[in-house]
Amino acid sequence: MPNQTIPNYVISADRLSKHYGDFVAVDGISFDVPQGESFGLLGPNGAGKSTTMKMIGGVSQRTSGKLTIMGLDPEQHGPEVRAHLGVVPQQDNLDEELRVRDNLLVYGRYFGLPMSYLKPKADELLEFAQLTDKAKAKVDSLSGGMKRRLTIARSLINEPKILLLDEPTTGLDPQARHILWDRLFRLKESGVTLILTTHYMDEAEQLCDRLVVVDKGQIMAEGSPARLIREHSTREVLELRFGSERNTTVAADLAGIGERLEPLPDRVLIYTDDGEAALEQVTARGLHPITSLVRRSSLEDVFLRLTGRSLVD
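The chain above was modelled as a monomer; its predicted structure follows.
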């Protein structure tokens, strides 16, 4: 391995771009990730999240810009960089024919790790993933949540310093998601740097110390979840439903209430620092919604404001 000093950041991207012909998947993004941080890439489908992850993982070459992992360029020092990485892809790619423990052992051999290390390490990881009682089971007998935990356990076989997680809980039920969040939080506590993409706003709020919102290959905003909510939304949101035929037309009668008004087909959103006071103003104008809800602003409000509400295929 080349001589290394400890870098200020375990991942550093400077004007990183990736083009596929005329299509720009990643358009000159820059960010730095210090050791031990949980860093998120949040964005709609096609925003460039997975492409960025592939460049970090060294499986896709960048078109332009600079990228270093642990102070090394992944295109010039691929094997050395990959030795520091654990990768959890969007889709589980476990060997369905092998037993649970054997998946860990066989994967570890790809790194050239000796069995004297792998056998106790596999047992340790099965315990971490809460799969000890499934060690001899075939993978195809596991639930979706168990398979996801096994995929994460497998990614840790080489004791990586950085763990890349692409949509780690997609398709899981709430119980399985919370178990997975707990395992990831424990990894962060042990000093592992987490880089994750997710569509789930609550997941980003729970797991990410800091994140970037990406849209059309560009960074729209960066900061902690709390900071992004503070900068791009209000403290509370008042949700009003007047009926699908009236939501849009009644919006004019709500003008001036709160800081911002957003009429939607199914409801009207009023962004304000005091939702109850805003609701009092609504009723004082003689307007009586079918339902009303005061809630705190969330990362979803920020996400939709920055990236829009239209569907992306």
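The radius of gyration is 23 Å.
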